[in-house]
Each structure stands twice: as C-alpha cells, then as structure tokens.
Amino acid sequence: MSRDVVLDLASVGATDLPRVGGKAVGLAALLGAGATVPPGFVVTTDAYRYAVGAASSAPQVLAAPVPEDLAEAVRTAYRDLGGGPVAVRSSATAEDLPGATFAGQQDTLLDVEGDEAVLGAVRRCWASLWSERAVDYRERLAIDPASVAMAVVVQRMVPAEAAGVLFTADPVSGRRDRVVVDAARGLGEAVVSGSVTPEHLVVGEDGEVLERRPGGDGGPVLTDAQVAELATTGRAVAAHLGRPQDVEWALDDGRFVLLQTRPMTALPPAPVSLSRIQRTTGPVLLELLPRRPLPLELTAWIRPVMGRHVEGIVAEGAGLHVRFADVLLADDAVVREFVPPAPRPTVRTPARVVRSLVRGLRGRPEAWARDPRLAGYRTAVEALDALDPTELTWEELVAVPRRAAGLVDVMTALRAGHLPAAFVAIGRLRLACVLTGRGGLFADLLLGAPTRTRAANDELAALARGAQEVPGLPELLERADPVTMAEVRALPGADGWGERLRHFLATYGHRETTSLLLLRDPTWGAAPSTVLGLVRALLADRDRPQDAARSGPPALTAAGALGRAAERAAAGVALREDTHFELTRTMPAVRRALLEAGRRLAATGEVDGPDDVWFLTLDELTARGDLRGAVTRRRAAYQELAGSPLIATTTLYPRPPTSAEVLAVGTPAGGGRATGPVRVLAGPAEFGRLRPGEVLVCASTNPGWTPLFQRAAAVVVDHGGMASHAAIVAREYGIPAVMGTGSGTLSLVEGARVVVDGDRGEVRAAPPEHL
After folding, report:
1. Is this model's pTM higher than 0.85 or not?
2. Of the N and C termini of the chain, which has fewer Cβ atoms inside 10 Å?
3. Cα separation values, 24 from 9, 11, 16, 146, 444, Å
C-alpha cells in the first residue's frame, strides 16, 4: 500500500484530480481562493482500488474487507483531525466536473463519529459509486465505468445555524451580474435534497437584495448584510476559478464556511439586448437547432453550405450583410452561443431592394419550377447522390461537402431570383384583404397550396390506410420498440405495401428527421423507422378521445380578384416550402461521405471510433494531423456545455404568462381553440407515441413533423414563429398552434388536459368540465 492513500485536504492540488476526485479538488480550490473551509482529509482513489480491487457492484464493495494498514491510516487521520463528528462525502473522479456534476448521485453521511463509524461511512461512499442511480447517470453521459474511481472526503462537521447554496450567476436568465442564494435554518443537506422550501434571494452587483422570497417557515434566514457578504465571497470564488460556481455554504457562529464548489451546469449564455428584427429571426432560426451542432456539422455543412446559402439570399435579395460566424459563436469549432442574426445594410442595399421589387412585380411565384437551373441542379444532385463513398479516394471523399456547397449555390441564385415574386404576391393579398375589410381572412386564404410537404403528408396518410389492410401490420407498428424494414417485408401479404413504402422513401427519403442544419442526424431514407413511426401515428380510429374539443377556421376560398391574389400568394408559400425540400436533396450524400471518413479513420487507428469524426473539422479531415487529440479536446468542451441552452429563454422569449392560470404563452400561429391531453415528444424516434386528439408539445419542428398534425388536436412548440413550417401546416389543417413558448416542454406535463388558444397564443389548464 502507498503511504499516500490519505492526504490532508490543504495539500491537494488541481493535478491530483485522478487521485482525489472532483469534490476534493473543488474544496482545495476554495482554500486557494482564501475561503474558510472545514479542515479534513481525503481517502484517495489508490485506497479505493487497494481495498475493493475489481469490484463493480455495491454489494461486492461492501463485502470487501478493508485491509488493516489502510484502516489504521484512516483512523490516524481521523484522530489527527481531532475526532468528534465529521461529514463523510463521496469524491468520484467524474464528480463535480463541468458537464458532469453527479449531484446527489453518490453518498454523503453527516454527523459520523468514532473510528469504526468513519471506516463504515468510507465504505458506504465507495459502494455508492455502484448505486443504480450513479450507474444510470454515467451511462447517460457515456462515461466508461472502468475510468472512474472513488475518493472520500472527511471533514470536521459544522454545527450550522443556517446553510444553503449560492449560484454566482442566475441559473435561469444566465445573468452574470446576479447572485442567487437559497437559505434555510439548520444543515444545508435539507436545501440540496429539496426536503425544505428555502428562502430565495437574488443579489445585485452592489450587494443589494433585489428579491427576497420567504421559505417554508416564513421568516428571514439571513440579514441583508449577511447576504451581501455571502455574495461577495461567492463572486471571489468564481473569479478565482474563472467560471460561475454552484457553492454550498453554512453559517457557523456568525461566520460563513464553504462546504463545496463546482462549476455551474446548464447555465444559459449571458442575456443580450435584441433588436426587433432579432426577436423575429431568432425563433425561426433557433427552430433549426434542436441541439448544439457538432464541430464537423459546423465546419463542413452549416457555415460553408447552409450558412453561405442564407448569407447569399440576404445579400442578393436586399443587399444586406450577415455572417453565420456571428450567429453561432464557437470556440475551437465548439458552438457556445446562438445570437439571432441582425442583417446590416450596405452600399448595395438600395439598388438590390429596387431590383428585387422589380423582379417581384414582374415575376410569378410558380415560375421557379420551370427555371432551367432547377433541372440542372436536380441532375447534378442525382450524380452526387449516386456516388459510392466506399469507392472514393480520400481526397474525393472530403471534397463531397464542397461539391454540395457548389450545388446549393445554384439554389441560392434560383431562390434569390424568385422569392421576390412570392413576397410581392403575399403582400398584394394582405393589402387586398385590408382594402376590402377582410383582414382577418389573410392567413386562411394562403392555405391549400400543393406543396411537396403536403404531398408527403397525404402519401403518409395513404400508407397508414393501406397498412390497415395488411394482416398483422397494424399490430407490428403498434409495438413499443422501433420496427425495421426487414420485419415489414417478413409479413405475408406486405409486398405491395412495402413496395409503396420504398417508393415513398425514394421520393422523400432525403427529408431531414431533425433539422436541415444537423447533418449527423439521419434522413428519412437512412432511418425508415422514423417514417414507420409516422405511419403508426396516423393509423385510423385508434382510441380517439370522444370528448376532445377542437375548433378552428375552415379552409376558405375567394372569388374574383381576391381569389386570384390568394392563388398567387399561396403559390408564394409553396415556393418557400418546396425550395426547402430541394435544399435537403444534398444532405444524404454529404452525410454518407462523412460517415465513411469516420469509418476509415477508425480502421487506421487515427481515432478511437467512427463517431469521433463529428468532433473534427473539415480542414482536419483534409490535413489529418493529431486527430485523436482534437477529438479528446473538443468532446470534453462539448460535454461541458451539455444541458446548457444556446440562448437564454428569457432573452428570446421575454413574455411571461399573463395570469396564474396560463401554463405557457407564445406567438399565436394557428387560430381556434382545442382541448386535449398533453403529449410531449422529444424527437422523431417518439413519433409513434402520439395518439389522435392529443396536444402535440415539442421543442422544435421541421416539415418531417407535420404529418402528425393530421391527428393532433393542437400544437405547442418551444421555438419558431408564424412563418415556421409548423405554423403554416397547422393553419392548413385548421388546428390551433402556439409557437415560441420558450419552455412549453418543461411547463406542460404529459397527460394533463389543457386548452390551447391559438388566437391568444396561450395554453391553460382545462376547466373541470373537461377533466
């Protein structure tokens, strides 16, 4: 046994992390910041390995005898501490780290007293490394169990008068000029565990208490002066450690003692002031970012292909300047923050605006489909899609994204040339509605355009009807586990239906499952289980609630000049939808090429696994330097941001609920009201969970979600606006839609019955008569 199996807490340094764990390193950092910390010692990971060996379950750890020399080292350290009551706390090597706090996952034991009791508490902390909750937590974060070990911190117990936690930044708004304190009388464990309602305080930069919300006992726990002192201490710790901190504290005989610190996780970026145009563009673009982009997505697809497309459209159509590098702020290709675009005028703006206006007045929206550039684009995309990535040289393989960028440039020019006609047509219809006193009909008159999205939705509905005629297929699709194409083909009598499905995938298989920007996620063709999930959701006559109330505006038509204006404006809406559909044609070939690059790099040992390729940049794929080091660095940086939103909800969606009865509020995007149970879907893999008459609640949508609107009573989405695909299709189906709620997926509980008001943009709890 090494003589260093027990270390004095004051001797621990940052480089000791593998031996003492995250909690001990954090406590040592507090000492370095000059904070008051209870004295103590650390039983290192060397002691853990020496005592339990290869044990990998809590019973195995508890059954392993503690070697006598180790036991005596712990007893000696405890006596040197002065004996008496101590706190014994886990300090795993993956604990209290950025992106992996393990908060509450492993054991803390308080008021432990006596040699043998301390030894027993150490063993319980070791065993908690293998508790079910800790194992599940590691699996969720993809942490290799062989890479973790448990150290244990033993500190003199603090007889706290009051205790709690403080955050050196506001965890909700992301404001770095606020300190948030939760305080309760007695030990802080009650605050951390949630067993008491603490006093809640918000402190400004000057130490002033800006907000004080009483706790469960109603009386103040801390004076204003104490709160200011605690906030100052917390800010000093954060400044010393270089990032916002989550700090546990105790008040002992009038002085503050710090018990733990760890980096704040899931902290939004600091709020920024947005212009009116940013508040308009932000929700629409954020809808395309249901998760943080990966480095290869950013460098091989978003910036050089789709970002360049948006920049080109804005520059060509209005002479405005916008850079995607200013929209997705990144460090070392890891996106840290989203800033809604704010296009700036240039010297070309007046001329480009005039040119677009002339194009709009002279052109017709439907003319884009006859543009010869479209036929050339489709031919070139077919050639790109026909490439077999396994037969390409490395240079040809990494050149595929650049070939796609050249093709998308064609679509950029085509859209820039024809979109003005769509905008003018839509503007003319709005003006005609206002002049004729029918302003309320504007949105409804845009409905019914024959778009590729609508055609796909209709074909999916037909597939669902056809599935009812195949014996055993409805039951197979209803299965909880994802259904494979092989299982469908194995059903007797499914040949005809399977052929129709294959034709559907050949036509629409390039459609994205999650977002046009997120290349790693499969398309429909690469993940047919997503399409089968949509078919499952559309199966007819399944346990539809009889009391689901749903009303919305009927699809309207108009005659004469107003009718012609409505027809042309609807064609303008179709132009926007269908050109999006065309843009996605380039995705499958690029995705296949990058997946093949990952496979080859793993085969040559340049990276550990094929999926590592997504943590590289396109330039690195070309140069092939120290790829493993780049992957390790960026994966850690990416994981550190796990759980943190790209932008603070309160920055983009500052609208609070208008009353206590309102559960969520957003942009009215589809008129009418509907009542039904909430169904929260996390992504395309859960499409099959939606039942007819339910209120679909999700973080974001794309055209691939819209077939579900044929069964949903209403739609509530965290991100997006009136111009989002979800809003447009919801209006087509006549169901209420509320977009841009910011946090509807969190505030609306699955199964709860709600009323969605698409006219007011509100979601309320259903009144008793509907329960």
Report:
1. yes
2. C
3. 7, 10, 9, 21, 63
